[in-house]
Write a structure and sequence with these properties.
The complex is a heterotrimer of chains A (341), B (332) and C (286). Chain A has 341 residues and is of the alpha/beta class. Chain A has 2 domains: 4-206, Rossmann fold (3-Layer(aba) Sandwich); 233-341, no CATH class. In chain A, 28% of the residues lie in helices and 19% in strands. In chain A, strand 4 and strand 5 form a beta hairpin. The longest helix of chain A is centred in the middle third of the chain and has 18 residues, at 171-188. In chain B, strands 6-7-8-3-9-10-12-11 form an 8-stranded mixed beta sheet, sandwiched between helices. In chain B, strands 2-1-4-5 form a 4-stranded antiparallel beta sheet. Chain B folds into 2 domains: 40-61 and 88-98 and 186-328, P-loop containing nucleotide triphosphate hydrolases (Rossmann fold, 3-Layer(aba) Sandwich); 104-179, no CATH class. In chain B, helix 4 (116-126) crosses helix 5 (132-145), helix 4 runs parallel beside helix 7 and helix 5 packs across helix 7. With 332 residues, chain B is α/β, with parallel strands linked by helices. Chain B is built from 11 helices and 12 strands. Chain C is mainly alpha-helical and 286 residues long. Chain C has one domain (41-283): MetI-like fold (Orthogonal Bundle). Chain C has helices at residues 17-21, 25-47, 79-115, 117-132, 135-146, 150-160, 162-177, 180-187, 192-228, 240-247, 256-283. Chain C is elongated and about 75 Å long. The two termini of chain C are 18 Å apart. Chains A and B meet through helix 6, helix 7 and helix 9 of A and helix 7, helix 8, helix 9 and helix 11 of B.
Chain lengths: 341, 332, 286
């Protein structure tokens, strides 16, 4: 039984469609990654799943039951979130202990022994008991994120959604926080939805991955499948663009493609494709005509792509899916281009 | 204090023995201690470190852009053979048009109420001293150089009308308008999407060759440094702990901190299941332990590490490291 | 992450705002000064040996002397006693008059900022209308309608003065409402009331608290002005405003009669400003 599911969620802010017909599921004990760049809609999806945002259409299901617009306290408990900015996610005027005990109190947990439970929660994330009486300002970014995780755990949720939990942290600190997340799954059987633009982080923690582009899901697969054999050109572009510590071949930029419409101009010595996300081409993107949203910059683009938007359909027989007319051909046939010189 | 990689012919950017202090309880504390590096024309060197490593302060000191409370107490900056002072009016005038700085946040570095073109033109006119017509041509040329299409149209755009990646390119164009000899980059791609980052990094790499720039690239991201810089210096607690060719350092680090970083980083290619955190915390400036600042967190540390400052010594082809046990550092 | 910041504290102290209060020189100076003023106006009149309305027609308009440290006014009343007694009145009215505006304004501003929608629109339009009128014109007309005296002052301020609090608190609330910790509180299942009281207000109210200080000064000056115009505190209760107005005709001969009360207003205002400044510093979260 799927614990938490989004079923055909669409969210629009005025004219702009932020999330378009997205369905996603997270089970207790599993870890799902949601990948996308700015403008992909991944944070919006997270907020809908939490109940912080109401979709224009579609529903969120908990244990198969549809969640109402205003969730009950028990329903809210089940899904908790850890936010990106460690410096804005803790109330600067509340002590850590008070923040935790308040939550315990509201949910009637550990009544009579709230402080002891708060200590346990801190221990779970590797922080000492002295933290209880301190204000958030006394802690570093990594420590604050761990406090935020402890806060999320206080309500004993079934699912934790982490929105870029380590992006704002130093490298050596990221490792600590990632380990805490890994522990959540194995020791507490909590389901994790990890949202990140950083593919390497997703790979470390998640078994399945969903990729979003311009509000739509373009690919879903297991982590291994996605990283070894992506079936959507955008996924491939993402993988190619990540700088490597030990590159086997020079990391390339998806080049030689049709460029974004507003930028269409041949002859520039550094003509490279720019994925046309709303954040990138705000005032200059012409309205999408109904074809594939990635068509303007896709190296595999054909006429059919411009006319017909591909649906998220299975690749072969497997549960993995991709929204590309050419999903059955491995995207590895797009060779990474050497950096033009 | 050995002088890593100072270009033989004295051209390019050279920083020697830089020390920067800030006010702290009971006097002043060093946030940068005896840092030296050099970049020749057409060469890109990286400064990598986490927050508190002093890498940004180093860059600011080089640009004479330190916050008021900080001061460069020692060290020299030499550009193409000419020493540049840290303070006083000449500090700015001598750097104008010769060293340029590109920041992480292009949105705040560009003036929001002026068009991109006018900002480039301003530098071209007032710093490089070009006339009207030449300025116009140069503006368009620069926009094309940084890969912005439709330069004539884009020149009339305001920063908020551009995407993040384009703003970064615009910032580069402004920086390059006066044909500087050196380009300093302070985490220029950290806030960008990964696909955009790849392009901007490629652009910087390209420009550096084409315009023979001496590039100093600061980042916390080892993989990004790998992509852009031939040489890298690793900083910890205000000091350089290791310097050498990027590939060599990343493949075979000789300082325990560098190795710790490599173990802690999540990388797509790594075969490790989970990254390994480095235990402990970065010490505050002003409360550094005696001897090696990394000793309290170092798996190889011994009592000899806490006695005196560890010398920064050459250990082979163009590599320097400040560690008494560098030969014991295992491969990552 | 590349903010070139002078390094912050590590896993450090956890003192509350109280300790930080002691660290601001403005705050300490202001508090001391205010304490002196309050002490003087409370105890002073009892120590001088005169009653504020005790007339001594044989001794009118006397200069400062051993018996009367600040001299006497045109009815032979001891200036010092009157000054301190007037201070009692003015301070009392000043503080009481801001209470309703503060509480009401803060509450309305919080609700308007947090819930938005129709409530916000209505409240803000009312605020706009009230703000558009010149302050003193409003106060004076209200006092005319309601009648002079302290009751009129309280009512006039209750009607007019809450808008600044509402506006300030509303705009901070708008920002705090979007913060992650409020989102986390909602997710945590906390009720709206609890979120507003424990998470929103503590982060929005500090500006309003700082403003109280300026507001008290404003009220005192307004009372004094009304008193000068004969619309404020009614005689025989002494009030700095009426003292200034009564002393006016003797300005060229006995200038202290008007000036000293004016100076008292200024010093009181200074102490409150210092406190306001110091509070602004101390209440800012690190």
């Amino acid at each position: 039984m799927t614990t938490l599911a989004a079923d055909r969620i669409t969210v629009a802010f005025g004219e702009h469609v932020a999330v378009d017909d997205v369905s996603l599921a997270v089970d207790a004990g599993a870890a799902v990654g949601l990948v996308g760049e700015s403008g992909s809609g991944k944070t919006t999806v997270a907020r809908v799943l939490c109940g912080l945002l109401t979709p224009a259409s579609g529903v969120v299901l908990l244990d198969g039951q549809r969640l109402p617009r205003r969730r009950s306290v028990a329903q809210r408990r089940a899904v908790q979130m850890v936010f990106q900015d460690p410096f804005g996610s803790l109330n600067p005027r509340r002590r850590v202990g008070s923040m935790l005990t308040e939550l315990l109190h509201v949910h009637g947990l550990a009544s009579g022994a709230e402080r002891a439970r708060a200590l346990e929660l801190l221990e779970l994330v590797g922080l000492p008991g002295t933290a209880l009486d301190r204000y958030p300002a006394a802690f570093s970014g990594g420590q604050r994120q761990r406090i935020a995780i402890a806060r999320a755990l206080a309500a004993e949720p079934r699912i934790v959604i982490a929105d870029e939990p380590v992006s704002a942290l130093d490298v050596s600190v990221q490792a600590t926080v990632l380990r805490v997340f890994a522990q959540l799954r194995t020791e507490l059987d909590i389901g994790l939805l990890l949202i990140s633009h950083n593919l390497a982080v997703i790979r470390v923690l998640c078994e399945t991955v969903a990729v979003m582009y311009l509000g739509r899901l373009v690919e879903t697969a297991t982590t291994a499948e996605l990283f070894d054999d992506p079936r959507h050109p955008y996924t491939r572009a993402l993988l190619d663009a990540v700088p490597r510590l030990r590159p086997a071949a020079a990391p390339g930029v998806l080049a030689g493609a049709a460029v974004a419409p507003a930028d269409a101009r041949a002859g520039s010595p550094l003509a490279t494709a720019v994925p046309a996300t709303p954040a990138q081409e705000r005032s200059s993107t012409p309205p999408l005509t109904g074809g594939c949203p990635y068509a303007p910059v896709c190296p595999l683009v054909q006429q059919i792509c411009r006319e017909q938007a591909p649906a998220l359909e299975p690749v072969g027989t497997g549960p993995r899916r991709a929204a590309c007319h050419f999903r059955d051909e491995p995207a590895s046939r797009i060779r990474p281009a050497a950096v033009t010189s | 204090m050995t002088d890593p990689g100072s270009p033989a012919n004295g051209s390019g950017l050279q920083v020697q023995g830089l020390t920067v202090t800030v006010p702290a309880a009971g006097g002043r504390a060093e946030v940068v201690h005896d840092v030296s590096f050099a970049a020749a024309h057409g060469e890109a060197i990286g400064l990598v470190g986490e927050s508190g490593s002093g890498k940004s302060m180093t860059l600011r000191a080089t640009m004479a852009l330190l916050p008021r409370v900080a001061s460069a107490d020692a060290g020299t900056v030499v550009l193409d053979g000419q020493p540049l002072p840290f303070e006083g009016r000449r500090a700015r005038t001598l750097r104008r048009g010769r060293i340029a700085l590109v920041f992480q946040d292009a949105a705040s570095a560009l003036d929001p109420v002026r068009t991109v073109g006018s900002q480039i033109a301003e530098v071209a006119q007032h710093v490089a001293g070009l006339g009207r017509a030449d300025t116009r041509a140069r503006t368009l040329e620069l926009l094309e150089l940084v890969g912005i299409r439709d330069p004539a149209w884009r020149a009339r755009s305001y920063p908020h009308e551009l995407s993040g990646g384009m703003r970064q390119r615009a910032m580069l164009a402004v920086a390059l308008a006066a044909q500087p000899a050196a380009l300093l980059c302070d985490e220029p791609t950290t806030a960008l999407d990964v696909t955009v980052q790849a392009q901007v990094l490629a652009l910087i790499g390209e420009l550096r060759h084409r315009l023979s720039l001496a590039v100093v690239f600061v980042s916390h991201d080892l993989a990004v440094i790998r992509q852009v810089c031939e040489q890298v210096s690793v900083m910890y607690a205000g000091r350089i702990v290791e310097t050498g060719p990027t590939a060599a350092i990343l493949d075979r680090p000789r300082h325990p901190y560098t190795r710790g970083l490599l173990e802690a980083v999540v990388d797509l290619d790594s075969s490790r299941a989970m990254p390994e955190p480095i235990p402990g915390m970065v010490p505050e400036p002003g409360s550094l332990p005696p001897g090696c600042p990394f000793a309290p967190r170092c798996p190889l540390a011994g009592p000899e590490c806490s006695v005196a400052e560890i010398p920064f010594e050459p250990i082979g082809a163009e590599r320097w490291v400040a560690c008494l046990h560098h030969d014991l550092v295992p491969a990552p | 992450m590349t903010a070139v910041s002078v390094p912050a504290q590590a896993f450090g102290r956890g003192p509350s705002a109280w300790r930080r209060l002691g660290q601001s020189p403005a705050l300490v100076a202001g508090l001391i000064l205010l304490a002196a003023i309050v002490g003087a106006v409370l105890i002073g009149p009892l120590l001088t040996g005169y009653s504020p309305n005790q007339q001594d027609t044989a001794n009118i308009l006397a200069g400062p002397s051993g018996a009367h440290w600040l001299g006497t006014d045109q009815l032979g009343r001891d200036e010092l006693t009157r000054l301190l007694d007037a201070g009692r009145t003015d301070l009392r009215v000043g503080v009481l008059a801001v209470l309703f505006p503060f509480f009401f304004g803060t509450a309305i501003g919080t609700l308007a900022g947090y819930y938005g929608g129709l409530l916000d629109t209505v409240v803000m339009r009312i605020v706009d209308i009230l703000v558009a009128f010149p302050f003193y014109v409003l106060i004076i007309s209200l006092v005319f309608v309601v009648g002079p005296g302290t009751r009129g002052i309280y009512i006039a301020f209750a009607i007019v003065d809450w808008v600044v609090y509402a506006r300030t608190v509303r705009s901070t609330t708008l920002v705090v409402r979007e913060s992650d910790y409020v989102a986390a509180a909602k997710l945590g299942g906390l009720s709206d009331a609890r979120i507003l009281l424990r998470h929103v207000l503590p982060n929005t109210v500090s500006q309003a608290i700082v403003y109280i200080m300026s507001d008290v000064v404003l009220v005192i000056v307004a009372i004094v002005t009304l008193g000068y115009l004969g619309l404020g505190v009614q005689p025989p209760t002494p009030d700095w405003g009426t003292m200034i107005s009564e002393g006016q005709e003797f300005l060229t001969t006995h200038w202290t009669l008007s000036t000293i009360p004016g100076l008292a207003v200024a010093i009181t205002g200074l102490s409150l400003s210092l406190i306001g400044d110091g509070l602004a510093d101390a209440l800012r979260p690190r």
